[in-house]
Amino acid sequence: MNILAIESSCDETSAAVVCDGRALLSCKVASQIEIHARYGGVVPEIASRAHTEALIPCVRQALDDANIAMDAIDAVAVTACPGLIGALLTGVSFAKGLAYSFGKPLIPVHHIRGHVAAAYLTNQDLKPPFTALVVSGGHTSLLQVDDYSSYRTVGRTRDDAAGEALDKAARVLGLPYPGGAKMDAMALLGDPESIKFSVSHVDGAPYDFSFSGLKTSVVNHMHTLEMKGIVLTEQEKNDIAASFMATLVKTLTSRLSALMDTQSRPIVLAGGVAASKNVRNEISSLCEKRKVKLYMPEMKLCGDNAAMIGAQGYYEYISGNIADLSLNARASCDV
User: Fold this and answer.
1) What is the spatial distance between Cα 167 and Cα 179, in angstroms, rounded to a whole number?
2) pLDDT digits 0-9 by tens, 64-119
3) Other beta carbons less than 10 A from residue 123's beta carbon
4) CA dist 331 to 81, 91, 138, 256, Å?
5) Are 83 and 133 found together in one domain?
6) Nearest CA-CA partner of 267 in 239, 293, 249
7) Closest CA to 260 of 133, 134, 118, 157
8) Domain that holds residue 12
9) How wide is the angle at C-alpha 139 spanned by C-alphas 99 and 81, nearest 5°?
């Protein structure tokens, strides 16, 4: 079954063709990084306009790269939630028009489920049930995946997502947007014990996350140094990055480790922050120590892309999750 998938939940416009949820035939991503870099972050209205301009070229390129025509497409899948509402609406509206014009079924896909499904494209042996840790710029969730379309939320962030905190810490260190990848690289060169940032805990919710305190701690630390007139060396910046990343990763591994104490399911690590070498290394070490199988998407599939939407779209389709033309985008929704 060939699915044409569309992703436009934030600042990446993407189209892909995926066969039977496992074979990636093509994937085109149009990045908006240069557009938003001048503002230091994503501007929702600008993102929506950019999606409108990029959707048709992306879909055409995805079909061409897959060497397939719309007649051979069996269904159209699209990210329907969660995300920036204007950005989502551009993709949903386009997908509805495309499905209607060519008489194809329309499949709504949850963005977080898509991130998890990216692992199916890389790991052909991966099947539910398993536990998924999704870490991205807008989401940090610990999920029990009982079946391909049956998810239970075990833990979630109560405030900032891990990726959001990472980007804000990078910004206060003077790194250009998006600074997460650069911050991750700097951390590998620094001393993670140089500064003691605290790992957060949420009373009564041992699997929930909180990153706002960590974000505030690094911001306050930098402001204190600035007020004292201290100019940091590159190595001192690396040390701050390393200390921040070590605390962020420990926040993630502490929850995952606690859940491992109660069950022995395989682990899937997914989302944009899953591309972090610090995160991948520590989660890999934890799973190796616990003798638990770990699955991760390949690096290029960790960020937002339509390939993951096409993968999950297949399983949504076979479970009967098909929408009509009343489908609407939603900024937030349960997984």
Assistant:
1) 6
2) 999 999 999 999 999 999 999 999 999 999 999 999 999 999 999 999 999 999 99
3) 18
4) 6, 13, 11, 27
5) no
6) 293
7) 133
8) 2-117+301-318
9) 20
Judgement on whether residues 201 and 263 belong to the same structural domain of the protein: yes
In a domain, 327, yes or no: no
Q: Are residues 210 and 134 in the same domain?
A: yes
Q: Which long-range contacts (CB under 8 A, 24 or more apart) does 155-159 make?
A: 155/205, 155/206, 155/207, 155/208, 155/209, 155/255, 155/259, 156/208, 156/209, 157/208, 157/209, 157/210, 157/211, 158/202, 158/205, 158/208, 158/209, 158/210, 159/210, 159/211, 159/212
Q: Which tokens is 30 given?
A: 């149009």
**In 3-state terms, what secondary structure has residue 132?**
strand
Is 251 a residue whose pLDDT tops 90?
yes
Closest C-alpha to 76, from 90, 61, 88, 91:
91
Residue matched to tokens 């551009």: 90
Overall number of domains in the chain: 2
Is there a domain that residue 214 lies in?
yes
Do 161 and 287 reside in the same domain of the chain?
yes
283 and 138, same domain (yes or no): yes
Backbone angles phi, psi at 123, to 5 degrees: -120, 95
What pTM value is reported for the model? Answer: 0.95
β-pairing, 267-270 vs 130-135, is: parallel
Please check whether residues 305 and 293 belong to one and the same domain. no
Taken as a whole, the chain contains a residue count of 335
DSSP classification of residue 209: B
Has residue 123 been placed in a domain? no
Is residue 35 located within the same domain as residue 72?
A: yes
Question: CATH code at 84?
Answer: 3.30.420.40
